[in-house]
Fold these 2 entries.
Entry 1:
Amino acid sequence: MRILFVTSEIHPLVKTGGLADVSASLPAALQSLGMDIRILIPGYPGVLSGMKEAFECARLSEGSLLCGKMPDTGVPVYAIDHPIFRRGGGPYVDEQGLDWPDNAARFGLLSKTAALLASRHSPLEWKPEIVQGNDWQSGLAPAFMHFSGSNARSMMTVHNLAFQGNFSRDWVGGLGLPPSSYSMHGVEFHGRFSFLKAGLYYSNTITTVSPSYAQEIQTPEMGCGMEGLLQHRRRDVHGILNGIDLSEWSPERDGYLNVKYDESNLQSKIEIKRELQAGLGLERQDDAPLFGIVSRLTYQKGLDLVHSCLDALFEQGAQIAVLGTGEKEYEQAFLRLAEKHPGRCSTSIGYDESLAHNIMAGADLFLMPSRFEPCGLNQMYGMRYGTPPVVRKTGGLADSVTDNETGFVFEKAEAGAFREAISRAISCYRNREAFRNIQRSGMAKNFAWEKSARSYIALYESLLSQGLSTGPGFRI
Ligand code: ADP
Ligand code: GLC
């Protein structure tokens, strides 16, 4: 099967979160199962310099298409080389953290190029049978495919419904969509032009990254206003839990760790903990339960709950190591905490791959009290590293962590419930045998991509075996 996987970030070339990890590892898993899968991505500076064997394979009406390979996996990549992607800053924001004002044009171009490659006007010989878009940045691809009469099937994969790509309606015509598409039965969403709504409306099928989140997004509480459409399309909404890339995330061969370990020598973790405590200015205390956080610092991640529980945490002798970037107020709050509790709390603001791996390995427990979590990868990395996660029962956290077996789960997004879970985790940590059992159960879980990749293949197959259907209003 020929699949075009359209994404706005990919590890290790450009990353802001889990989408980058999934964009690297899911296509690689699909390729190893025999799929002819290729990636389409904007040619940001990191992509142009990082892809291997790149050459120009087509001229586009806007810019050109470079063809190359991913550095580690060799999965083929097409990058759109155009000045609107060749900028400093991040993939979505400038150096000041503000959205690029022309994001509609930038990701409109990504989506339009995907649809072009799936059309009879494609400049390439290779034609995808399936176009899989990821999040709002590729949300217009199914719309363009619909209006150009493409024969390929479209799949919209939602990694986070809260990011919707909503813009002024003035962009509709400029991007080449028919004015009639700006309607409730189309790309309009509460008086705005929504890339995500377009993807959810026009795609042939919808997936999201865990079974629980697939249900949650059909409710008013978690549907971000899209619940009506998602309920309407419920037969087309599928939840497939992400896997993790074991070549990147395995403590027995992790290149970022000075000491490697596995289930049989978990006692070696203490050496990484000591290094971490020394490196971060935490007191050297072998028996202080060390909690790790590696996260985007945003409302989604529920980190304000951590603040209301910190006193309880310190009273029980715990330490905490935070690594993250995000909203300034969260960054400031964690920096103030580290100042107030020297030796017990350390805050590192920034993006640091090596520190992320060392926290995952050196911490005793991992905190993830998310308000919502479509899938979440860090809790799976935590289990893999013998660092049991304390998580809220939502989305992919609910689907991947079992309370008192592989981690500690609480239900309500309230300080009391979180505090109770933290206390249970600390008591368990102090009971060596019980804690080892939880660590080992987590490490024994199979988070490899293969099972999930096979679920995607089954969906691709079923899409190809059906007649062409588009969106909730249409059956062609
Ligand atoms: P999300 O995509 O919502 O941010 P996930 O748990 O799916 O959450 O994925 C987060 C990914 O980003 C993980 O690979 C995590 O290690 C990484 N990450 C997040 N923040 C940082 C950071 N400050 N430094 C290094 N890696 C980070
Ligand atoms: C999003 C979600 C996260 C998920 C990741 C990869 O960033 O917030 O829960 O793990 O995408 O699918």
Entry 2:
Amino acid sequence: MTNATITGWGRYTPPTILSNDDLEHLTDTSDEWITTRTGIKERRISHIATSDMANIAGRRALAAAGLEPEDVDLVMLATCTGDTVIPSPAALLQAKLGAFNATAFDLNAACSGWLYGIDLATSMIRIGRHRRILLIGAERLSHYLDFSNRATAVLFGDGAGAVVLEATTDDEGVLATTTGADGSAAEILWVPGVGTSGDRYQNEDHSAYGVIMDGPEVFRRAVTTMGEAATRVVVEAGLDVDDVDLLIPHQANIRIIDATARRLKLRPEQVYVNIQAYGNTSAATIPIALSEAVEQGRVQPGSILVFAAFGAGLTWAAASVRWGARVEPIGTATVDVPPPDGDVFDLLRSNIEFFGKGVSE
Ligand code: UT7
């Protein structure tokens, strides 16, 4: 049987940090509230486009797999914050990578996008449609935030993570996947006014351009659904929860992560958490976390990993994976990135001016 196994991993996290202390100058919040209610201490703000972040993460994943960009036959970009609508950011990315033997498309399932990609890539490899796939989750959520709105400004950040999936006949790789959606609850987490449903001639209403979320309702649904999805991919892989070595969950709230871990009866050392450093980077959280976990030796040859995510749509997904024999990258990519122009408040200047609240002392 043909399996889909992860052979490369990489990430790009922008250098500019927006700390909880910085946010206290932009909105009515506190480090104490954000830390205790979410687990987040800081997040990154990107000075480059989504497809540029994806390009860097993608090149790093390809180098780790020992591949050149021309070697992949599909580039899949999971994002809900692409730099363009036409053409797809995946097309821009394909050119930036120089992956000219690959077809390229975007996949938008919000925070579940990268895991939807794992599900799709695995199916495509299993049926022989593709053999080498570069799957990237990249998000520039800062573009859609109103930094004067404490309900959402404190939660999200920018970044990109990538993996290479290759066909193998070895007994490894993606074991089981599950995906789901419930569009009837779309309005508990959405960005109104963007897209063809918006009125392009009535852009005066500033509030129409930002993430709107019923936090407690999203929280309630995420806790139940992520735990169920994670359990399903363990059972469908013919495994027991005792077999799980590491859970790498979507990083939206430390309390959601803890609840998912409790559901699987995992100890803290069996759960990868980096929400404190990056906040919620939507489709990028899991591939960023995976690439860090491999580097830190938290993933070993043959490790059983479980991924689980939940997000806007509503969407959810999970996957179980048996890691292959290699945990060292074959190569590393050196990529030149232009430095940011100014500090974090400079990067957010147009946002702060647009929403009209300013920076307090
Ligand atoms: O990837 C999926 C996307 N999103 C999520 O998964 C998010 C899921 N939801 C959550 O993580 C949590 O619901 C939040 C972190 C968004 C909010 O936490 P909560 O414990 O559910 O708080 P809440 O919304 O019930 O608000 C409690 C209080 C309210 O004040 P009052 O009415 O009790 O006086 C809020 O106004 O906390 C207030 N509050 C804040 N205070 C300081 C809400 N946001 C903030 C803030 N700083 N940033």
